[in-house]
Write a structure and sequence with these properties.
With 100 residues, the chain is an alpha+beta fold. The chain has a 3-stranded antiparallel sheet, with no helix packed on it. It is globular, with a radius of gyration of 14 Å. The N and C termini lie far apart (30 Å).
Length: 100
């Protein structure tokens, strides 16, 4: 994992720990970092979090059928947690979104 974190850091990717994801809206991603509410003004969201499958956010987001959401990595299949698989899935999904 450290080599991937270093690679992302070298590409100026900001990594934020201690995050609680609240919701996604037209304004962006609403979250809380160590108890402080924040809003990230984004148009695409890829969440890489935890080692256990938790579909609560995905289920909530899919109640709004005007947008499409995806599960990758451990959120899709926690039984086979594999960082390389999750990174591959995230990369491939990001490329699809970028060209959509």
């Amino acid at each position: 994992g450290w080599i991937h974190r270093t690679s992302l850091k070298n590409r100026k990717v900001e990594m934020i720990g201690g995050v609680e994801y609240k919701r996604v809206s037209d304004e962006g991603l609403h979250l809380s970092v160590k108890g402080k509410d924040m809003l990230l003004n984004v148009d695409h969201v890829v969440v890489c979090a935890g080692q256990e499958s938790n579909r609560d956010l995905w289920n909530t987001l899919n109640e709004d059928d005007s947008r499409k959401y995806f599960l990758i990595g451990g959120s899709e299949t926690a039984a086979e947690v594999d960082a390389m698989r999750a990174i591959d899935q995230g990369t491939r999904l990001g490329l699809k979104i970028e060209t959509a």
